Amino acid sequence: MLITEFRIILPMTVEEYHVGQLYSIAETSKNETGGGEGVEIVENHPYTGNPVFFGEFPDGQYTHKVYHIASKVPKWVRILAPKGSLEFKEEAWNAYPYCKTVITNPEYMKDKMTISIETMHLADKGETENAHRLTPDELKKREVVYIDIANDTIRSSDYKADQDPAKFKSEKTGRGPLGENWIETANPVMCCYKLVKCEFIWFGLQSRVEKFIMPVYHRMFTNFYRQMFCQIDQWHGLTMEDIRAIEEKNKHELNEVRQKGSVKGTVVD
């Protein structure tokens, strides 16, 4: 099993992030859906009485999604993968400020593949050493990766001028552009501690696939949070009621547009 903890520092409050993340997830889902691929939302509703973090945070929002991602994996995976095996189930328990997401492939890989993403959101700059309360053995396996949304290198194919935190300035909040040392002076500031655990039990492919997964999440997190910050004027000031209305509308639209047009979003060659 590989364990990587991504620490993404952002110039916003923990409360602002809650709305911004959900808004940007809805937008990203639309941008990644079309041509028979993308996001299918199966369930999205509140839950109560299900503690998800050491007996804490018993209430939250449950979502169940199916990802159709044939073009989002390397060509060698597409060649090896049987038809229908590139559809993945995602279950998420958003008990903010803690969230847990579990991704599986129940139709084909069953219990041979599990990716879990646990996220803790804290009002700091990534200094908390063990936000997820890992055991000593887990800490030995964990790799920590910091993501700077303004200064980290991204692929030229991923670059969008309107999603560049080094150039964007928010009209609503006055934040940005983010300079070389923005993390040192940012106020407000917070950190997403994203703990990704990947286990792939498949003889001959285990090491190759596990090592492929972490760079994919690194790329995805970097692009997503660049976009989220640069969309701040679109979501800043929205309420959770506004967000739930957007999500409900999105659920119906995604199921319709997924069957139309061409493949959209991030494609892996």
TrEMBL record:
Sequence ranges assigned to domain Phosphatidylinositol transfer protein N-terminal in this UniProt record: 1-251
Pfam families xref list: IP_trans
GO molecular function: phosphatidylcholine binding; phosphatidylcholine transporter activity; phosphatidylinositol binding; phosphatidylinositol transfer activity
Superkingdom as given in the UniProt entry: Eukaryota
GO cellular component labels: cytoplasm
InterPro entries: PI_transfer, PI_transfer_N, START-like_dom_sf
Ranges in a coiled coil: none
Name the record gives this protein: Vib
Taxonomic source organism: Bugula neritina
